[in-house]
Amino acid sequence: MVGKKRAPKRGKRTPIGDRVQFLTMMHPGVIADIKQVATEEHRAARDLMEQAAMEFLKRRKAKRTF
């Protein structure tokens, strides 16, 4: 086996800051739209999703304080 190169390990990413992985399933059209917006805004799709989730939670919290 001399000379054979191993393929790099796949599947694990280096954590970014204090973030942890969270998996979900979405309609393929929604995913495509998110990726398109991310590309247009030169941002990562995960950042768009995190922002959307934070805005949703903020609106939900505001509704519940009444």
Task: Please give the structural blueprint.
Elements lengths: L27 H13 L4 H20 L2
Helix pairs in contact: 1-2
Structure characterization notes:
By secondary structure, the chain is mainly alpha-helical. 50% of the residues lie in helices and 0% in strands. The protein contains two helices and no strands.
How large, in whole angstroms, is the Cα Rg?
18 Å
Number of helices: 2
Task: Report the structural category.
Answer: mainly alpha
Instruction: Please trace the helix and strand order, writing H or E for each element.
Output: HH
Largest β sheet strand count, sense and barrel closure: none
- Characterize the overall form: elongated
**What integer is the average pLDDT?**
87
End-to-end C-alpha gap: 69 Å
Q: Summarize the amount of helix as a percent range.
A: 40-55%
Share of residues in strands: under 5%
Number of strands: 0
Low-confidence stretches: none
The gist of it:
By secondary structure, the chain is mainly alpha-helical.
Question: What brief labels describe this structure?
Answer:
66 residues; mainly alpha; 2 helices; 0% strand
